[in-house]
Amino acid sequence: MGTDNPIDLLVSEYLPAVEASAVETGAVEAQVASTLPEVRTLAELKTPVYGNDPNELIKHRFLYRGGIALLCGPTGIGKSSFLLQFAIHLAAGQALFGIEPGDTFNVCGMKVLLIQAENDEGDLAEMRDGVIKGCEELTDEQREQALANIKVVTVCDKTGDAFGMTLAVLLKRHGPFDLVMVDPAFAYLGGDSNSQKDVSHFMREILNPLVQKHRIGLLLAHHTNKPLRGKEKEGWAAGDYAYLGAGSAEWINPARAALAIRSLGSEDVFELRAVKRGRRLRWTDAEGQPTNARLIAHDKRPGVICWREATELECALVAAKPAPKAGRPKLYQAVDAVRIVKANPGESENGYSKLLSLALGCSPSQGKGLLGEAVDAGWLATRLEGGCRRYSVTDAGEACGGGVSITEIMAKRVY
Asked: What single DSSP character describes residue 225?
């Protein structure tokens, strides 16, 4: 335009389709000014009041109204069931795996909208029933409240800007909502997941304005990268976990918070890690120390489709030290068999042999031998039941240390 006037430059850069000669500088300035956010001094900013903050969705401001969060996880591990289980707890005003809703939702719970693309009505209904069946910690009243507070919609034909317009209409006509869950984000991107430009447009220009305008929290289910192997995996530092999500870093950069369900090599036990703003959840480990991770597992009961806290034994097995190098003999103790039986009553001889094998790094036959040694020592009693050999801990077994926590097995391993 041949001018250094900032308004003229604004017109030239952001309104290229408009003939500069036809635009009144004052009109453009007024239009831009009408969309400017409020400008305040640093001293005018208000400190949140914990316990009485309607904008706090997840304690302690892990997620708030106007914020976006990610739930990252590998394909097929149960992200959808986790999302629904999480939605049910939040809609009932209850915590899940130490993730607590803000205090203002303790009574009435959250209003949640679940937008999904991959499950038909039958799958959704089965998932609902399976999750509800597994949520034994919720009362009947809390379950009813959760079911009434959650709305579900299947959108499988809209991406990019079209999805943004669909979301805007859903929020206007079916709201108000406190939290919106989108499963999965890939289904609605409408671009290249590895492209910073495409992901930035989706996150910052489509979703973020809607989140801000409607004062909701947004939780996106997002796929992780392919699993790392060997030294590459071992070299990860704490901050690297924020980039577990597949594609451009622009997935995580605009997000205020992020959770990740991470494979540990087991088919049933996984790590739930708060990879961004994790310390705000105020999780602690078994020793009471702050942590950003905890172990969760699939609930295998018939008819149940949800997640549960990992057992003490499962946690101990995951925390087990790696197998020693060849040539260094191991010494196993019969008391380890007593502890395994104590922690897992009702298993068969084969079951205990396998558990000992996993816990100690020995063979199942060596585990069976340890069971025999414990019986000979009078620490375990045995009986035949239903064609299987069953074990129980005797008083002498309790006295020998069999009543100690199963985690002691790992601490006392001798090489």
From this structure: P
